[in-house]
């Protein structure tokens, strides 16, 4: 669920709670429990849909986004040390991608 939110954030897409629960691959009650735990830990937030009061969207926090960015940077550094040259659009380009997605 966290990676799905991170990717959606980078792409400038909004994710609703139902879709996030569906992508988790676990029972809806379990997925909702995890969403609530992430909200309680302030790693994500839920925002009501102005057009449909039954739906809420989920946003990734700056803290979680930063932690994932750092993790990806460390993974890329480890792969580089191991001799991986990677594609031309490397993981370290995530900051530029995020800014482009937000400016849309």
What do these coordinates show?
- The structure is a single chain.
- The chain has a three-stranded antiparallel beta sheet.
- The two termini are 24 Å apart.
- The protein is built from five helices and three strands.
- It has helices at residues 2-11, 17-24, 28-40, 62-81, 94-102; strands at residues 15-16, 44-48, 56-60.
- Helices cover 58% and strands 12% of the residues.
- Strand 2 (44-48) and strand 3 form a beta hairpin.
- The protein is mostly helical and 104 residues long.
- The mean pLDDT is 85.
Features:
104 residues; mainly alpha; three-stranded antiparallel sheet; 5 helices; 3 strands
Mean pLDDT: 85
- Biggest beta sheet summary: 3 strands, antiparallel
Oligomer: single chain
Question: What is the N-to-C order of secondary-structure elements (H for helix, E for strand)?
Answer: HEHHEEHH
Sequence of strands across the biggest β-sheet: 1-3-2
Number of helices: 5
Low-confidence stretches: none
Number of strands: 3
**First-to-last CA distance:** 24 Å
Set down the secondary structure blueprint.
Layout: H1 2-11, E1 15-16, H2 17-24, H3 28-40, E2 44-48, E3 56-60, H4 62-81, H5 94-102
Antiparallel strand pairs: 1-3, 2-3
Helix pairs in contact: 2-3
